[in-house]
Amino acid sequence: MYKNGEELTRDEQFEDHLGRDVPVQIYRGNLHSDIGFVQAVLPDFIRVNDTFYRRDLFTFISRPGY
Fold first, then answer.
1. How many angstroms separate the Cα of 20 from the Cα of each of 27, 30, 39, 43?
2. Whole-prediction pTM value?
3. Domain range spanning residue 55?
4. Is residue 20 part of a domain?
């Protein structure tokens, strides 16, 4: 399982969160953007809360137990 605060970068990590309904927190730089569940994993985007976030612009953090 993932640690609270662990950064997600690989497809396998996002797929794990998608399949287990583990929330992710999303940042752009130091600014919080969103928190929710992964709905889709695409080559350039991660879909959370019906919003597509570019993988190269945002940081995704695991938040199990949130």
1. 21, 27, 11, 20
2. 0.92
3. 7-62
4. yes
